[in-house]
């Protein structure tokens, strides 16, 4: 499996996942259609080579370009029925919409996509794990988490790569420029995960096969990349984590992550047993 975080933050989210059989799935399409095309080509991927777009929830930073991209390149577009209704203005009825249900896995080529419900202020929000049935690689993408429930933690167990929300620094949020009502929404159990909560979750999900933690969906006004990284690094250092810890960018893609090679570096003995 190869994973490329094309961009993340309140201005847009999208992650490309490639299976061992070459199948390509875009998880979320929160940039404009043109921007998504540019980001995909920047990492050497033609948009028409995608098999599908999978959408986690209806917020614009996850859906903005989905209709344009799906129509322009004839891509399958996976939505829950509730999310489909909630973002109907982006759809013209010409898209190849495939409805999925928030607790049932679906298979796209060698990739098994397992959605699971999250607590967030959207109509039917999910996070996902994507597993490659050929290699056993497992990716978790969990942003827009008000709080990590027991179900979320169970679903994310055993991931080799975690794209995890680190939305805000709590002090920066409360001292920051947002109106009080917005601050309360962000910090609530239906809002977004703080750096501290992200560090706690990363520590809980740590296991010897964990090869990469990508901090994502950072707030532009209430966070700082170095600060988020430091908070989560401190939580993981206690467990002698040796994998990659990085921060997703809003304005450009991260370097592609080849999961099998990264697993080998993180835990050579574990992979040799596989
Ligand atoms: Zn959201
Ligand atoms: Zn979001």
Describe this structure in words.
This protein is α/β, with parallel strands linked by helices. The protein has one domain (2-259): Metallo-beta-lactamase, Chain A, CATH 3.60.15.10. It is 32% helix and 23% strand. The chain is built from eleven helices and 14 strands. It has helices at 33-42, 60-63, 66-73, 81-86, 150-156, 170-175, 180-187, 195-205, 225-237, 259-266, 268-273; strands at 2-7, 14-18, 24-27, 52-54, 76-79, 96-99, 106-108, 111-117, 126-132, 138-142, 161-165, 212-216, 244-247, 257-258. The strands form two sheets. It has a seven-stranded mixed sheet. Helix 1 crosses helix 3 (66-73) and helix 8 (195-205) packs parallel to helix 9 (225-237). The two termini are 15 Å apart. The mean pLDDT is 93. Bound molecules: zinc ion (ZN) (2 copies). One zinc ion is lined by residues 57, 59, 120, 122, 144.
What key phrases describe this protein's structure?
alpha/beta, globular, seven-stranded mixed sheet, Metallo-beta-lactamase, Chain A, about 270 residues, binds zinc ion, 14 strands
Distinct ligand kinds: zinc ion
Strand order, biggest sheet? 6-5-4-3-2-1-14
**CATH fold-level topology:** Metallo-beta-lactamase, Chain A
Described by strand count, sense and barrel closure, the largest sheet is: 7 strands, mixed
The proportion of residues in beta strands is: 15-25%
Tally of domains: 1
Rg over CA atoms = 17 Å
Just name the CATH architecture: 4-Layer Sandwich
Low-confidence stretches: none
Q: Count the strands?
A: 14
| The CATH homologous superfamily | Ribonuclease Z/Hydroxyacylglutathione hydrolase-like
Distance between the termini: 15 Å
Taking all residues together, what is the mean pLDDT?
A: 93
Report the order of strands and helices: EEEHEHHEHEEEEEHEHHHEHEEHH
CATH class: Alpha Beta
Total count of helical runs of at least 4 residues: 11
């Amino acid at each position: 499996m190869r994973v490329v975080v094309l961009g993340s933050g309140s201005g847009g989210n999208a992650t490309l996942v490639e299976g061992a059989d070459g199948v390509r799935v875009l998880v979320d399409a929160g940039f404009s259609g043109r921007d998504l095309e540019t980001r995909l080509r920047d990492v050497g991927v033609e948009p028409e080579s995608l098999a599908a777009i999978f959408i986690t929830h209806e917020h614009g930073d996850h859906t903005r370009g989905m209709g344009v991209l799906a129509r322009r390149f004839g891509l399958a577009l996976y939505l829950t029925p509730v999310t489909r209704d909630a973002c109907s203005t982006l759809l013209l009825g010409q898209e190849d919409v495939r409805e999925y249900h928030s607790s049932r896995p679906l298979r796209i080529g060698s990739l098994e996509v397992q959605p699971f419900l999250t607590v967030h202020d959207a109509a039917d929000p999910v996070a996902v794990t994507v597993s490659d049935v050929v290699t056993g690689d497992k990716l978790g993408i969990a942003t827009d988490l008000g709080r990590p429930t027991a179900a979320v933690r169970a679903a994310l167990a055993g991931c080799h790569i975690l794209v995890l929300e680190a939305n805000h620094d709590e002090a920066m949020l409360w001292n920051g420029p947002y109106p009080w009502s917005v601050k309360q929404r962000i910090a609530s159990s239906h809002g977004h995960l703080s750096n501290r909560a992200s560090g706690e979750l990363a520590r809980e999900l740590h296991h010897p096969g964990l090869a990469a933690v990508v901090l994502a969906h950072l707030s532009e006004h209430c966070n700082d990349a170095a600060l988020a990284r430091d908070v989560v690094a401190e939580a993981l250092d206690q467990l002698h984590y040796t994998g990659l810890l990085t921060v997703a960018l809003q304005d450009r893609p991260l370097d592609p992550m080849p999961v099998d090679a990264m697993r080998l570096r993180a835990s050579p003995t574990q992979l040799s047993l596989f």
